[in-house]
Structures are given as C-alpha cells and as structure tokens.
C-alpha cells in the first residue's frame, strides 16, 4: 500500500511541476534586448529611406540622432534598462503637420521592420500597444 501511495505521490508531484509556468520574460528580452532593438530600428530606418511618402518628414533629421533616440525610446518602453532622455513627442513633431494616413504608414513601416527582424506577431502587438498612447502627440502638431 505504501508503495502505491509513493508512486501516486510522485506522479502528482511531477504533474504539478510540469504545470508550473516560468515567469514571462520582459518585452525587452523578447525583442532580443539591445541587439534586437538595434536590428528593429535599423530595419525601420532602411524602410523609411525607401518610402517616398515618409522620407520627406525626415529630411532635416540626423539619422544617427534619430537612431540613438529611437533605440533608447524602444528600450525604455519595452522594459529595458534604458532611460529615454530625448525631447518629448510633442516637441519633436510640432510643425511637422503629420496627417493620419502618413502616421499609419509609419506604423506599417515599423511593423514591416519588426517582421524583418524576426519579431513575433505577439511581441509586435505588445510594442504597438506601448507606442499607441503617443499617437495624439504626433498627429497634426
């Protein structure tokens, strides 16, 4: 009888251990940490450079400044160790008169860049959810 009890106990213990889930890693880690975010941003910059509608918005921008700022911003919003210290979204976009269609195109380019970098749809959606609150600070400023 005690042997049966021991076997049942072991089976239950193994079953419960199998159900325990590991804590979910941060979005920053799921994006590939610093290297992964750099890949996303570089793919995004490459896509912007090829887009005749969006490129003019960046005509007066320093690519290296934009790259560093966007990497820092993505790192912070994804739960990474970075602290974004750049200008506010309002300050950056005031006077650019970004319309909704062009804003949506930039979002499309970011999604394509995340696909280029191998980011899963789940993580893409998590990134977009983190960026969505900034929408009102960007359009028609």
Q: What characteristics describe this protein?
A:
141 residues; disordered N terminus; Globin-like; mainly alpha
Average residue pLDDT: 88
Question: Which series of helices and strands comes N to C?
Answer: HHHHHHHH
Query: Can you name the CATH architecture?
Result: Orthogonal Bundle
Uncertain spans: 3-7, 9-15
CATH topology description: Globin-like
β-sheet strand percentage: under 5%
The Rg value, from CA coordinates, equals 22 Å
- List the domain count as a whole number: 1
* Morphology: globular
Number of E-state strands: 0
End-to-end distance, in Å?
77 Å
Largest sheet entry: none
Q: What is the C-level CATH assignment?
A: Mainly Alpha
| Class inferred from helices and paired strands | mainly alpha
GO molecular function, one term: metal ion binding
Protein name: Group 1 truncated hemoglobin
Keywords: Heme, Iron, Metal-binding, Signal, Transport
InterPro entries: Globin-like_sf, Globin/Proto, Hemoglobin_trunc
